[in-house]
Amino acid sequence: MLKDKKLFLFDIDGTLALGNDLFDGTAELLSYIGEIGGMSFFITNNSTMSSDDYVKKFARCFGLKTSADFFITSGYMTIAYMKEHFMGKNLFVVGTGSYMAELEKNGLTVTDEPLGAECVLVCFDNSLTYKKLENACLLLSDPKIPFYATNSDLCCPASFGFIPDCGSICQMLTSCTGRTPVYLGKPSRAFVDVCIQKSHFTPKETIVIGDRLYTDIACGINAGVDTCVVYTGEATPKEAACSEYLPTYAFENIRAFYEALKNASSQS
Question: How far, in whole angstroms, is CA 188 from its chain's centroid?
């Protein structure tokens, strides 16, 4: 039940904000969670920004003071996985220069040339070129080369609608090579597990809030915690009604979720 929730795991784009614009109700909700002794984490499949980048953006664009400890990104989860399994090996990365720098900062060896590469890693890449796709296809023609991606999101919210995300880039590669990547971002339950480990709350006290059914809601379902979809991003009520990923709660927007949480808490 909503009144039992103390650990809130929020998607960002399409859920709390769109670009540099914070949705109505977000600031009040985050403040209220603190007032009731709760904790907010921000779990995002956006691999173009580090946790420190998000702290700066929340302060600069939203006027919200946060800490890097409370941002769990697909980039963070991918780096942890790559450090465990591919340290010392050459990673061919389809990604932004900033994320390649983040990989290198963590001791990983990255390249945008296929020669000598031992793994293909695809991320959201707004600097995507046809040559990157060609080189990725060349490597993936070898079945021994493993194929990973930060996240399966097909669309990234934009002010006018949506633009292709990492999942769409991967679909192009799959169409050409027959290879499907292992996705390291949501819907992996690891996001929820990390947040629970970092907090003192239980799965019963935890809820995942997002705007995508196949990533955000599936992530919560995979972890065995309650979920909430808001219809300010990709998901629609029609899709939610027939999806295999049925949310526990659904609201028009984050303001409506905030009001419902306040009402539930006041009755406990």
Answer: 10
